[in-house]
Fold this sequence. Notes:
- This protein has 140 residues and is α+β, with helices and mostly antiparallel strands.
- It is 40% helix and 16% strand.
- The strands form two sheets. The chain has a three-stranded antiparallel β-sheet with strand order 3-4-5, covered by helices on one side. A two-stranded antiparallel ribbon has the order 1-2.
- α2 (51-61) packs across α3 (81-100).
- The radius of gyration is 27 Å and the shape is elongated.
- The mean pLDDT is 85.
Amino acid sequence: MLEITANIRIPEAELDENFVLAGGPGGQNVNKVATAVELRFDARNSPSLPAAVKNRLRAVAGRRLTADGVLVIQARRFRSQERNREDARERLTELIRKAARPAPIRKPTKPSRAAKRRRLDEKRKRSTDKRLRAPPRSDD
């Protein structure tokens, strides 16, 4: 059981891990042992996630989410299979925690009277500068 928050827990059965060969440092071990982990989690069909979290996860996950709603995380940072497995699970946990937090409500604001006055003064100054750059007109 992967504990995300106090309310959200994902059973092991919902996680699919595939181990693949990883490049990089490791000597002959790289050619013999599949240390990289590809963690797949079907977020769209998961009964463990509330609907609101699923919607926010779509935005947070970005290109890691497939068209079918499967979240794919690849971990190949470490030389050992176990550390890569932990890394993939930590990254999944962090993504879902981020999606579990609702976005803060934006309070609409208005510019102050002084800000409006500064903006208009600057516009007048820019207008004058541009007018002075123009070539003199001949009155024929």
